[in-house]
Design brief:
Number of helices: 1
Bound molecules: beta-D-fructofuranose
CATH architecture of the largest domain: 5 Propeller
CATH class of the largest domain: Mainly Beta
Shape: globular
Helix content: under 10%
Oligomer: single chain
Strand content: over 45%
Radius of gyration: 22 Å
Number of strands: 35
């Protein structure tokens, strides 16, 4: 196994920032080398947000799973990324897998899955705490659980701590060991003797995939939200179109009855191609989500592999719950990225066409009062290459097509979007990462596009019939700054 030399790796990171390759994003967290995945350990401590994430510093394969770490006060200025946690003992030699973080009197603490395989490939998953030290490494400490419980396989990972009535619990991704393995989550409660298995919260989902990863248990007022990533659900016409899903159910968690009561249907958190394993932190009444922009088992499709790095995290999003549905908005701190001098206003009436030049990194706000228009296309154009957001008012379907791109994965994603008169869009178009928010956050879609040529994109809005009124703005966005405290 490669050696995880924190000093050498940190030095290499510092040398390779700011990013040089034109496919590197300007306002999405990513790494100059290696493969990143799930956000981990999100928490707020002493005036700063701490963001960890899965990272293989040695290549673009899913191995050598470490935790990288940055901290920020404002989601714009970040510390230089560092290696924080890496496999170095028998318990986690095959990966420091995902987990959560929390503020404690002794500082930032983390709680993660240690993954180990024996010579026969038999897996052991144990759950361990650690504490972030002044030198930036996480000191590994006590175990909460040495292994998986009876009746469940060793696919037992990604613990997420939560508190109810002053008692600590965690929810963890699990797989019931049945004839056909069944995905689920388990809940543990803290006692004076350690962590006690309380059970599987009962849901009305039935058999819902073979594994659930990365659960989060959140509270919005009097509602509980169980978010998780089920694997093994077949694609449907208007949802579940990615290889693996990421979504939630809303209801009331009964810890005594061990059930999610009166929950609604499973809704996806994002409708794009590249979104998985999100984590949410609650701070001062806000629910802040970061997701992994990527998808397990689709790695070959990303052309940045040839440059030795892969994937990003989403921008931070603020979640709100309204009538059982989670709305996602970009965190308001990101408004500080807007460069005011170059703002472009968009305004037109009774038009079938509107064009705007973008910047190498842009935010676009658009309000389209549809009028007679039934079919609307919003095209991101990079020379001859295009990515198109198509809205069909008749079927109320939004369709995102990367079919017009040359490099990287293509394909289509489509979902229902109910628009009465005004279609509202807020787009963040980074060098390769795009996040599109629809109807003020009712839906959001994250995806990558890899323009072949180094071309600043143009935006074209077209419709089959005149749109009554189009108004909006285009901002050039500044870059995330690293190395500041
Ligand atoms: C989700 C996941 C987690 C696991 C981690 C390993 O993407 O598979 O379940 O802890 O990635 O990197």
């Amino acid at each position: 196994m490669e050696k995880f030399d924190k000093k050498a790796i940190d030095a290499k990171l510092a040398e390779n920032l700011p990013f040089r390759h034109r496919w590197h994003n300007r306002f999405h967290l990513e790494m100059p080398f290696g493969l990143i995945n799930d956000p981990n350990g999100l928490c707020f401590y002493d005036g700063e947000y701490h963001i960890f994430y899965q990272w293989n510093p040695y290549g673009c394969e899913h191995k050598n799973k470490c935790w990288a770490h940055v901290h920020t006060r404002d989601f714009v200025h970040y510390s230089t990324p560092e290696l924080a946690l890496w496999p170095d003992d028998v318990h986690d030699k095959d990966g420091c897998y995902s987990g959560c973080g929390f503020a404690a009197p002794e500082g930032v603490r983390v709680f993660y899955t240690c993954n180990a395989k024996d010579a026969q490939g038999v897996r052991t998953s144990s759950q361990r705490f650690g504490t972030l030290q002044a030198d930036g490494h996480v000191k590994k400490e006590e175990f909460a659980l040495p292994t998986n419980p009876a009746g469940y396989t060793a696919h037992f990972r990604d613990p997420f701590l939560f508190t109810r009535h002053g008692r600590r619990y965690f929810v963890i991704g699990a797989q019931a060991d049945e004839d056909a393995p069944r995905g689920t989550v388990l809940i543990y409660g803290e006692t004076d003797e350690g962590w006690e298995l309380l059970g599987e919260p009962e849901t009305r989902l039935g058999n819902f995939g073979y594994m659930w990863e990365c659960p989060n248990l959140l509270q919005f007022g009097s509602y509980d939200v169980l978010a998780f990533c089920p694997q093994g659900l077949p694609a449907r016409e208007f949802d579940r179109q990615n290889r693996y899903q990421s979504g939630y159910i809303t209801g009331h968690l009964s810890l005594d009855g061990m059930a999610m009561l009166q929950h609604n249907k499973f809704c996806e958190l994002d409708r794009g191609f590249d979104f998985y394993a999100p984590q949410v932190m609650e701070h001062e009444g806000r629910h802040i989500l970061l997701g992994w922009m990527g998808m397990p088992d689709e790695d070959a499709q990303y052309p940045t592999r040839e440059q030795g790095w892969q994937y990003s995290l989403t921008m931070p999003r603020e979640l709100t719950l309204r009538q059982g549905h989670i709305y996602s908005r970009p965190a308001r701190e990101l408004q500080a990225l807007r460069i005011q001098e170059t703002t472009r206003q968009l305004a037109a009436r009774q038009t079938k066409r509107l064009e705007a030049d973008l910047f190498p990194g842009s935010e676009v706000l658009l309000n389209i009062c549809l009028g007679k228009a039934q079919q609307v296309d919003l095209t991101l154009r990079f020379g001859l290459e295009t990515t198109v957001l198509h809205y069909d008012r008749h079927t109320q379907v939004m369709r995102i097509s990367r079919e017009g791109m040359k490099l990287g994965a293509r394909g289509v994603r489509q979902f229902h979007l109910y628009v009465d008169e005004v279609l509202s869009l807020q787009l963040f178009i980074d060098r390769t990462a795009v996040e599109a928010f629809f109807q003020h956050g009712e839906e959001v879609a994250s995806f990558f596009i890899f323009p072949e040529k180094d071309i600043v994109p143009g935006l074209e809005l077209t419709a089959d019939q005149p749109m009554e009124e189009v108004s909006g703005q285009v901002w050039q966005l500044d870059v995330f700054r690293y190395g500041m405290h």
